[in-house]
Design brief:
about 425 residues, mainly beta, five-stranded mixed β-sheet, four-stranded antiparallel β-sheet, 3 helices
């Protein structure tokens, strides 16, 4: 659709990328981390994107700069010393008089200095700094429900350094943990699962390693919370072979099982992956964006169905090419950050997802008491809600009535 080189979006090398959709008009925006700051691009017209401006780093420049979004605010961390967490009001992007602008931050959190990454559970308004200079690099838990005044509310340091994580209000088949806030952490050599429902007393449920690990880097759950896909950033680099995606059965959070490994078509290093509508979107450095079909994940079988090579001269195990991607826009457009070459806006052509059964929250094919409990645990959520079965953005009485109306029935085949 479009490509914007670094010279058009603020300059320097790129890092993480995330997206924001304006709730007023559905406008879509790319937010991309750079060596010296964070850039904002209006991609509503994906063929003619507009660079709106940048937010400079809070302190010094850094290769690592990561962004997440909650409640129309961007939250930005970096491994730059004393950087803390910047807060930026994304609604300011609606009225940029003279682009590109140099923005100022709307808030700042100094409870940690450097941090490798940031994770947000949008259903609770909790942010989790990982790889920070606090709590042994484990989870530093921050309440961001008042976005411009974040406050520390807890931590988890018992398993040491966390490189990346996903935190959800759990809606999977493990009834013991239904509705709880659960962190799935990649801790260098293990996938570690932590109950963070009480941030002052987080409890480790499991910590599981796997054969051939070199650096457990990042991972993401399938949308039914049954499986977790993880990548290892250094196995290809040190041991050779083709790109490997590790597949975990996490239907028992206290005893997850590594059920298999998907081996890709080349030897590039894998970096960040996300799941959406039955597909896995992988940013694999020199191999570019790789899209895998998850239909047969229960048998540990994944199938590559599309790719976009951002480094066509090589797929070798080196740290160039795509850093990350964001596949969650309603338009179906996917944004990809390229360390050396800037921003790519892509439009994959994929088969439509299977017919939904939205009231089956735990994905077991039936509407039961477990689904009701999960919805109660998510009740009142106002963003990215697991219990939002009518797609209005919230979990409310309307959703509960829809579930109760189908209670006891099986999902259609």
């Amino acid at each position: 659709m479009a490509h914007m080189p670094p010279s058009e979006i603020g300059g320097g090398e790129m890092s993480d990328i995330w997206g924001w959709t304006d709730p007023l008009d559905g406008g879509e925006y790319a937010i991309i981390g750079r060596y010296a700051g964070t850039s904002f691009i209006n991609i509503t017209d994906p063929v003619n994107p507009v660079y709106l401006g940048q937010l400079p780093t809070h302190t010094s420049s850094s290769v690592w700069r990561d962004i997440k979004v909650f409640n129309n605010y961007a939250f930005i961390v970096s491994e730059a010393g004393s950087h803390g967490m910047q807060v930026f009001d994304l609604t300011r992007l609606r009225n940029v008089a003279a682009a590109p602008e140099t923005f100022t931050e709307d808030g700042h959190f100094a409870g940690f200095g450097a941090a490798h990454n940031l994770v947000i559970n949008e259903s609770t308004g909790h942010a989790f700094a990982v790889g920070a200079n606090t709590f042994s690099g484990g989870l530093h838990i921050v309440d961001i429900n008042n976005p411009t005044n974040p406050t520390s509310i807890g931590s988890f340091a018992e398993d040491g350094y966390t490189h990346d994580a996903q935190v959800v209000t759990y809606a999977g088949p493990d009834a013991q943990h239904a509705g709880k806030e659960i962190a799935f952490a990649c801790n260098e050599s293990t996938v570690t699962i932590v109950d963070v429902t009480d941030p002052t007393d987080a409890v480790q449920l499991s910590s599981t390693g796997y054969s051939g690990s070199a650096y457990t880097h990042q991972g993401w759950l399938t949308e039914d919370h049954k499986y977790f896909l993880s990548n290892d950033e250094l196995d290809e680099y040190y041991f050779g072979g083709n790109t490997k995606t590790h597949i975990w059965d996490v239907q028992n959070l206290d005893a997850p099982v590594h059920i298999g490994t998907y081996t890709g078509t080349n030897g590039a290093i894998d970096h960040n992956l996300y799941t959406h509508n039955g597909y896995c979107y992988q940013s694999n450095y020199r191999a570019g964006l790789r899209i895998l079909d998850l239909e047969n994940i229960a048998s540990a079988s994944l199938t590559e169905v599309a790719y976009f090579d951002v480094y066509p001269t090589s797929n070798s195990a080196a740290f160039n090419g795509t850093w990350s991607n964001y596949p969650y826009f309603a338009s179906g457009n996917v944004i990809v950050s390229h360390i050396e070459n800037g921003l790519y806006i892509l439009k994959p052509t994929l088969a439509p997802p299977p017919p939904p059964c939205p009231t089956d929250l735990n994905g077991d094919g039936m509407m039961t008491v477990v689904d009701v409990l999960m919805m109660l645990g998510d009740f009142g959520c106002v963003s990215n809600c697991a219990g939002d079965v009518n797609d209005d953005g919230m979990t409310t009485v309307t959703d509960m009535l829809a579930l109760l109306g189908e209670f006891g029935f099986n999902c259609p085949e």
